Automatic annotation (TrEMBL):
GO terms for cellular component: plasma membrane. GO terms for molecular function: hydrolase activity; potassium:chloride symporter activity. Keywords: Cell membrane, Hydrolase, Ion transport, Membrane, Potassium, Potassium transport, Transmembrane, Transmembrane helix, Transport. This is Potassium uptake protein, TrkH family. InterPro entries: Cat_transpt (IPR003445), TrkH (IPR004772).
Length: 446
């Protein structure tokens, strides 16, 4: 961690550089002949794409993880997922704690920004809780999945598959090893399995709530009234998106991909496809076979994404809530934006609008580039762009057909989505603030 003192990079720049460094290390490891089943070196662009997808916990792939990569390659991918999900600074702090090294003020500042904590005070305690809770949740998920996988695959393979998919689900990564049944099938073979579905969905939701929310819930248990405003908004918006998304998906797909299913399977699939587009990337139905309505719903959920400081991406639930509240406040001609008997700061509203604007601009740019470079239909280009930028991992099946330039576009979108579009631009453009202010003058809006 001594390197933090040798560079004059701020916390935001350190996060951006850290993720880039992890991606490059992963690329080199996945390029090794030992990482592939056939013993041949993976092309650099393919290794870079896979490493970026794993580190950015996205799940888009140009090669099926099971059929392409050896055990070594799969473990590299799993390590990248864990580091990318928790954040490289959190993992680095774990090693510092194990070595009983002191964590300095510079490192604490980067940690605070990395997990979107409110303040630097108590950040080490929060990181310790994050690491412990992650181990417990992923361990419990692995035990539940092992109940299903071990009888089917044998004890050793079953435990390995359980651990891999538990970490992948918790980190909202979407990587899977179900290519043993058929390449690129994701969790479709377990479409009717209640245990696997509920376990994966629970892991995705917990991972997508955010580290600060975990800490608040652990601190106050079930005393909802004592939760922070942030926690209340995250829980409310998450519940609304899951239930509302499931109802809409069922309504749109009951005569299509859900038509031949048992009623219980329809419920499971609807819930799963409501949860997974919000940055997880697993699927239990054929994404390419969705109706226009189902596709648009999935893209909308991908656009919103998970919550701040979580293992997921997207615009974020709190950002959407702030924009909705600000819009309602403006329409009602009220000065303050209130929720749960609290007033939001003006800077929070400004950040929400800036973050959303940048996110939408990047989405439009990504769609335009995929259309012009690859000649994709607008729907496929939009789906792939939102999936990459939202670090989701769902695809209509075109990822493997992308050329080198298009893959670079997707890589940059995944990186922007994981680091944060606003954070990335701040890292690049941040400079010295000017104390001079220009005269104020009105313009006409709308």
């Amino acid at each position: 961690m001594m390197f933090l003192g040798k560079f004059r990079a701020n916390s935001i720049q350190m996060i951006a550089l850290g993720f880039a460094g992890i991606i490059l290390i992963g690329t080199l490891l996945l390029s090794l002949p030992a990482a592939s089943r056939d013993g041949a070196s993976l092309p650099f662009i393919d290794a870079l794409f896979t490493s970026a997808s794993a580190t950015c916990v996205t799940g888009l792939v140009v090669h099926d993880t099971y059929t392409q990569f050896s055990l070594f390659g799969q473990i590299v991918i799993l390590c990248l997922i864990q580091i990318g999900g928790l954040g490289f600074m959190t993992v680095a702090t774990l090693f510092l704690m194990m070595a009983r090294r002191k964590i300095g003020l510079a490192e604490r500042g980067v940690l605070t920004e990395s997990v979107s904590a409110f303040q630097i005070g108590g950040i080490v305690r929060l990181i310790r809780r994050i690491i412990i809770c992650t181990a417990i949740v992923e361990g419990m998920g692995a035990i539940l999945l092992a109940i299903r996988f071990c009888p089917q695959m044998g004890v050793a393979t079953g435990v390995y598959y359980a651990v891999f998919h538990s970490i992948s689900a918790f980190c909202n990564a979407g990587f899977d090893l179900m290519g043993r049944f058929a390449p690129y099938t994701s969790l479709i073979p377990y479409q009717s399995d209640v245990l696997v579905n509920l376990t994966i969905m629970t892991l995705i939701v917990i991972g997508g709530l955010g580290f600060v929310v975990w800490d608040d819930i652990m601190e106050h248990k079930l005393r909802y009234v004592r939760y922070k405003l942030h926690t209340k908004i995250v829980l409310l918006s998450t519940a609304f998106l899951i239930i509302g998304g499931a109802i809409l998906f069922y309504a749109m797909e009951q005569g299509n991909v859900l038509a031949a299913m048992h009623p219980i399977d329809k419920l499971l699939a609807s819930l799963f496809q409501s949860i997974t587009p919000r940055t997880a990337g697993f699927n239990t139905v054929d994404t390419a076979a969705l109706t226009e309505g189902g596709t648009v719903l999935s893209m909308l959920l991908m656009l919103i994404g998970a919550s701040p400081g979580s293992t997921g991406g997207g615009i974020k639930t709190t950002t959407i809530m702030v924009i909705l509240l600000a819009t309602i406040s403006y329409i009602r001609n009220t000065d303050d934006i209130n929720i749960f008997h609290r007033r939001l700061e003006n800077n929070t509203i400004k950040r929400a609008y800036c973050s959303t604007t940048i996110y939408i601009m990047l989405s439009i740019l990504g769609i335009f580039l995929l259309i012009t470079t690859q000649g994709l239909p607008v729907k496929d280009a939009a789906f792939e762009t939102l999936s990459a930028l939202g670090t989701v991992g769902l695809s209509t099946g075109i990822t493997r057909e992308l050329d080198t330039l298009s893959r670079m576009v997707i890589i940059l979108l995944m990186y922007s989505g994981r680091v944060g579009s606003l954070t990335l631009l701040m890292a690049v453009m941040m400079g010295t603030k000017s104390k001079l202010r220009n005269p104020e003058e009105k313009i006409i809006i709308g």
